[in-house]
Amino acid sequence: MSPLRYILLRLALALPTMLILLTVVFLILRVIPGNPIEAMVGQKAPPEYIQQLMEQAGLNKPLYVQYLDYIRGVFTGDLGRSFIDNRPVIADIMDRFPATVELAVFSFLVSIAIGHALAFLAAYFRRGVDEAVRLYAIIAYILFIPFFGLALQLIFGVYLRWLPIGGRITPGLEPPHITGLYVVDAAISGDWPALVSALKHLALPSITLGIVISGVFTRFIRNNMVKTLEEDFITTYRAAGLPRWRVLMRAYRAALVPTITMMGLQLALLLQGAVLTETTFSWPGLGTLLLERIQYLDYPTVQGVVIFYVLIVVFINIAVDLVNLAVDPRLRRGIWQ
Amino acid sequence: MEGLRLYYGMGRDVVKAVDGVSLELDRGEVLAVVGESGSGKSSLGYAIMRLLPENVVLYDGRILLHDGGAEFDIVSMDEEALRRDVRWKRISMVFQASMNAIDPVSTIGDFIYRIVREHRPDLDKRRGLAAAAEAIKSVGLPASVLDMYPFELSGGMKQRVMIALALILRPSVVILDEPTSALDVITQANVISLLKSLRGDVSMILITHDLALASEIADRIAVMYAGKIVEIGPSDAVLTSPRHPYTGALLESTPTLRQDRALSSIPGRVPSLIRPPPGCRFHPRCGHAMDICRREEPPMVDVGPGHRAACWLLRT
Amino acid sequence: MKLYVGAAVVAAILIFIAIPPLLIGTSPTLSTDRPLLPPSPAHPLGTDYLGRDVLARLMYGGRVPLGVALLATLISSIAGVLLGMFSGYTGRWLDRLLTMTMDSLYAFPGLLMAMAIAAVLGPSPLNAALAIGFVYIPTYYRLARNETQVIKTFQYIEAARALGASTTHIVVRHVLPVLTLTIVVIATINLADAILTEAALAFFGYTVVPPTPDWGADLSAAKSYILNGAWWLLTPGLMIVLAALGFSLLGEGLAERFGLRKKL
Fold first, then answer.
1. Strands (E), B153-245
2. Are A180 and A240 contacting, i.e. CB atoms less than 8 angstroms apart?
């Protein structure tokens, strides 16, 4: 089977999962008691007005019709319109998405860097270092993000004044809008002050989220390495006189598939951790959008954001599968080549 | 080697896998170390290579390797020197075929080159792969194997790859751990003839439970039991006139193709390496056990030219 | 080692939140002094932005987080294990459907789902427990189902079936006991997660309504004051971390002690 066919097959197989998730999202927001329009407008509003709004929002149609509209909407990119400002939900999402992407990417990098470094140290030195690293992994994950974030803000932002405590960039310094990613846009346009400001603002949030996520990651990589180091081919390399660190690299390379899969899971974790991080650092991303709109019971937007997250997770999983195939020849058996 | 010991810990117990082994190996000869599973023979192989497990508790003795005018004591030498000067260059090992001893995510070619490059940094990739190709061909495999991954190879092919790899730097000693065990009979025959063709070029320590294999290839045979060598001598001598009861029992229990007597086996079970029997370790299963056997370990005594055994029966 | 430290921390925290109401008179909800006072003998942890004693609020503020976390864990473990056992034992299309659903739910960002549910249900500790409980069901489902599939193959199950025992009987009397230890250990570790999730929900205001003391909610309310120097208002966050840490270590310690290598 050619690579292209496999990719298409994989995408097709992801559909049932997506449908189930989308259905769950749909049900959660519909079947639970409460009339969103009423809640938003208040019970004292005239019934005709409420009816009119409900009509507009399509909430008067029978459930299965709503469901079909909903599914159709997802696949055509129409996620409805916000109850608040009547803008298309997708527009609101795309406004905020770059901010979350930046935060997620930088946090991811921090987490991977810490995770690998500590895991390798643990696998190389073992004993004391290993115990310390394992303890770190447990503690890091438990650090409640608002608490950890606030503490860092207090230390580095207030007492030491090294870094800003909130926002994406110093107001007024925004780079020209190309992708919406300040770091990228600033780099492309050569806007040095914008780049520096954006990076400084990214520092605390990504370190906070990165460290917390690194807890899970460190532990996983370490366990993976230790397990792989018990394999027979490692003995061959040792017998053949390869230096310890090179043996570690070969072990890492052989266990790359679970590592990459784990990285994919990390990204999913990042998306939810980002909500807490965005709130703590006043970061204008999807997380804060979600929170705002939940408060106003703006169902379409809330639904839209959740769907968006779902789709991202599904696509990350597919990407992970494909990368794994490229990386580990054993998985290609019978598929291609 | 003299008095080689390797103990490792399992929970609160100490496994005395190799408990005072003394052997000698001459240039160009094949020495077979024969024993049942649980005799410690595999551990002996690793001990000679100084491939110590994570849970090692004791490792001492002397292993003197005389090669090219230099002398190395594998047990006590510095780790870095061992890795740089001795490992694979002068002494290498062929692991059991059933093991996943080849890097699963590399092609055979990359795998071999990676190891060769460690000791021959002067060889670039092209020359390194050429050397690998030669080694592969010399064990009877086509050069196309270099582009394949281990999971694409059969057990026999992998075993040959391991042999080719072990020989590629032309070491003076190669240890082979059960080279034919996981293979079907026909492949076994191929591997055996390959090994025979290598005799003389390199000295081999062949670790096996298969007496028949030992008889075919080995110049000398050492019989191992419960972490100790109980008899050692030239193949013919050991096979035709064994002087230790265990050796005799092993020979008796080895089935032959044209057998008309019942299969015999050695009564009892392989002793624990954690709490070996006191005195002579074989005494619980020995038909000739005497009082002294239960109390004191018999020393090695000469019983013929180059032939030694450790049994109290020989003292009388 | 972990076990004992964990157990000690958990015990300490439980004492911390349970005993004080009987001993200390300071009210956590009434303003007793000027706001934002730093720690002093009168107020060992200072006062918050409404002049309430922080230490008192800490002691009372643990009930909701721990109560919600415990309830949530009970809900998800009971539901998840029951579903998992029956699904794993019966097999066939029900199993396939359930498993696919659970796998999909498992991949979903849990906090988001809990937030969505809690938001719709309305702010109350019970609703929070339901939301969090729902989110963790797949964890227990998977565990129970996989283990059940293994246990199913054991001979005494066949014997019971041959004797005419009903599915329910077999599952409850024979499969469940085997699972219990693992479930308890996983639940302990999961409890730590539940505490953190409750804290997050409280932080967003989905758990309690003021003036009920709650570690997460208090931390959220104090955000701007903390950044203006009232560092003692960080203590609710510290409690959250300690509580979660205690249960984590306890769970991990139990897992080590009983030789469970189960993760996931």
1. 173-177, 203-208, 220-225, 228-234
2. no
Query: Which residue type, as a one-letter code, is found at position A64?
Result: Y
Q: How far is CA B278 from the centre of its chain?
A: 26
- C103, C203, C215, C254: which to substitute to probe chain A, counting the most A Cβ within 10 Å? C203
Report the distance separating Cα B115 and Cα A157, nearest Å.
52
What pLDDT sits at residue C105? 80
Alpha-carbon gap, residue C52 to C38, rounded angstroms: 12
The SS3 call for residue B228 is: strand
Find the residue in B nearest to A334 (Cα). Answer: B152
List CB contacts of B297: < 8 A, sequence separation 6 or more: B279, B280, B281, B310
Q: What is the pLDDT of residue A299?
A: 76
Mean of the pLDDT values across residues B282-296?
Answer: 84
Q: What is the DSSP letter of B302?
A: E
ipTM of the complex: 0.87
Angle formed at CA C249 by CA C247 and CA C250, multiple of 5 degrees: 60
Cβ burial, residue B184 (10 Å; 0-12/13-18/19+): exposed
Q: Is the C-alpha dihedral spanning B144, B145, B147, B153 positive or negative? A: positive
Question: How confident is the model over A60-85, as pLDDT tens digits?
Answer: 677 777 788 778 877 777 777 777 77
Residues A276, C226: C-beta atoms closer than 8 Å: no
Q: Which two tokens mark C197?
A: 């999730």
- Just give the CATH number of A90-297: 1.10.3720
Subunit contact C107:A313, Cβ cutoff 8 A: yes
A142/C245 Cβ within 8 A:
yes
pLDDT reading at C264 higher than 60 = no
Identify the pLDDT of residue A335.
57
The candidate with the shortest Cα–Cα distance to C35, out of C238, C239, C228, is C228
A146 contacts C220? CB cut-off 8 A: yes
Beta strand ranges found along A113-155 (DSSP E): none
pLDDT for the residue numbered A337: 45
Q: CA–CA separation, B144 vs B297, rounded Å?
A: 54
Contact C100 A16 (CB under 8 A): yes
Note the pLDDT tens digit of each residue in A130-152: 889 988 998 999 999 999 999 99
Q: How far apart are CA C101 and CA A145, in angstroms?
A: 30
- Given a cut of 70, whether residue B276 has pLDDT beyond it is yes
User: What's residue B94's pLDDT?
Assistant: 92
Count, in order, helices (H) and strands (E) of chain A: 14, 0
CA–CA min distance C263, chain A (Å) = 10
Radius of gyration of chain B (CA): 20
User: What are the boundaries of each domain within chain A?
Assistant: 90-297
Which H, E and C letters describe B190-202, residue by residue? HHHHHHHHHECCE
A221, A260 in Cβ contact below 8 A?
no
Side-chain-side CA neighbours of A326 within 13 Å: the count stands at: 10
Band (pLDDT 50/70/90 cuts) for residue B221 is very high
Q: Are A153 and A245 in contact (CB under 8 A)?
A: no
* pLDDT tens sequence across C172-206: 777 788 788 888 888 998 999 999 999 999 998 88
Lowest mean pLDDT, pick from A273-287, B288-302, C166-180, C246-260: C166-180
ω into C211 cis (within 30 of 0)? yes
Of the candidates A29, A144, A297, the beta carbon closest to that of C241 is on A144
Question: Residue B108's closest CA among B178, B160, B171, B186?
Answer: B160
Instruction: Using DSSP, state whether B175 is helix, strand or coil.
Output: strand
Query: By the 8 A CB rule, do A158 and C227 touch?
Result: yes
**Taking a C-beta distance cutoff of 8 angstroms, is the pair A22, A74 a contact?**
yes
Residues of A in contact with B168 (CB under 8 A): none
In what helix (H) or strand (E) does residue C263 lie, and over which residues does it extend?
A: none
